[in-house]
Design goal:
single chain; 75% helix; mainly alpha
Length: 182
């Protein structure tokens, strides 16, 4: 991507958040986002196939921009909880974006499917690093825990702070040493 193309994509992702906060998910269109970004609608469609694709890209960019946690001295459970809290709070202060991300990521747009896989791999990577193992069963359980909790947050059943707190409680129980309870 050229510098000009990267700038256009950056402007579109920033404008998407602005339009979402003003118009809500149902009122957001590529046309409105393009106008807010100062580009033509056709140009916006050159980069994003749908509003779901654009919103998913916003989340992806924020996720990969998050700094890795520096908790190397902490135990694995504490590191996992920190990762889950960090990811679950990524859009917590922006309710319109948070709800839109949930809706967008559930879409069937092939470009969204591609981003959904990249997002899943990034979260899996962060959890595996925090856990210190690539135990597929533990990682799968943590991913299910995370995705289920975030879905409840996206549907408005829980606040994102409640999601983060619930993730902590569940992760600590799930990762507790079974010998501790004996």
């Amino acid at each position: 991507m050229t510098e000009k193309q990267a700038d256009t994509v950056d402007r579109l992702t920033v404008a998407a958040v602005e339009v979402l906060s003003r118009e809500g998910y149902s009122g957001t269109t590529i046309r409105l986002v393009a106008a807010a970004a100062g580009v033509g609608t056709a140009t916006a469609y050159t980069y994003f196939s749908s509003k779901e694709h654009l919103i998913s890209e916003v989340f992806w960019r924020r996720l990969v921009a998050m700094p890795p946690l520096d908790d190397s001295d902490a135990d694995p459970t504490t590191r996992v909880v920190a990762v889950l809290r960090q990811v679950s709070m990524l859009v917590a202060d922006e309710p319109a974006l948070a709800g839109a991300v949930s809706s967008a990521l559930l879409g069937d747009d092939p470009d969204v499917q591609h981003l959904r896989l990249r997002i899943g791999k990034e979260i899996r990577h962060r959890l595996a690093q925090a856990l210190g193992t690539k135990d597929p069963e533990q990682l799968a359980a943590l991913e299910l825990l995370y995705s289920g909790a975030l879905l409840q947050g996206g549907m408005g059943l829980l606040s994102y702070a409640e999601v983060a707190d619930l993730l902590e409680v569940c992760a600590r129980r799930m990762l507790a040493d079974p010998a501790v309870g004996d």
